[in-house]
């Protein structure tokens, strides 16, 4: 057997550059709200509220890079319409036996059956 001895000087390490390093933003103690960005009628916005926070709220934890301005919630009408449909369950049209809806249903039932069997094995 032949062993290759390497000295420490022959091993190259990447050079650390402080410009390339990113740091996390310190948690701000300022939790007050910034005034509303738009001057639209607020009574119409109260009738149909889609988001969980009012416009102008500082969203903590979304700006994790140093030196960035805080992320502020916008009014609901400034977000794209598809955003509000992301959490709705997908509905498949019934296209007969062997169709996509039946395959999804059978797969879900099979996964549940496997979970139940695995649970019973632990009892």
From TrEMBL:
InterPro entries found in the cross-reference section: Ribosomal_mL54
GO cellular component: mitochondrial large ribosomal subunit
Residues covered by region (Disordered): 92-123
A GO molecular function held by the record: structural constituent of ribosome
Main location: mitochondrion
Composition-biased stretches (Basic and acidic residues): 108-123
Compartment(s) of residence: Mitochondrion
Record keyword Isomerase present: no
Keyword Cell inner membrane on entry: no
Keywords: Mitochondrion, Ribonucleoprotein, Ribosomal protein, Transit peptide
Similarity comment: family membership: Belongs to the mitochondrion-specific ribosomal protein mL54 family.
Record-given protein name: Large ribosomal subunit protein mL54
Organism: Suillus placidus
Organism phylogeny: Eukaryota, Fungi, Dikarya, Basidiomycota, Agaricomycotina
């Amino acid at each position: 057997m032949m062993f290759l001895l390497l000295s420490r000087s022959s091993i190259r390490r990447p050079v650390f550059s402080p410009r390339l390093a990113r740091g996390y933003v310190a948690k701000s103690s300022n939790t007050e709200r910034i005034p509303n960005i738009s001057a639209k009628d607020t009574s119409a916005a109260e009738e149909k509220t889609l988001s969980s926070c009012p416009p102008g709220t500082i969203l903590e934890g979304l700006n994790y890079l140093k030196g960035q301005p805080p992320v502020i919630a916008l009014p609901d009408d400034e977000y794209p319409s598809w955003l509000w449909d992301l959490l709705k369950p997908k509905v498949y049209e019934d296209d007969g036996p062997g169709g996509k809806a039946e395959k999804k249903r059978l797969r879900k039932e099979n996964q549940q059956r496997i979970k139940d069997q695995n649970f019973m094995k632990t009892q």
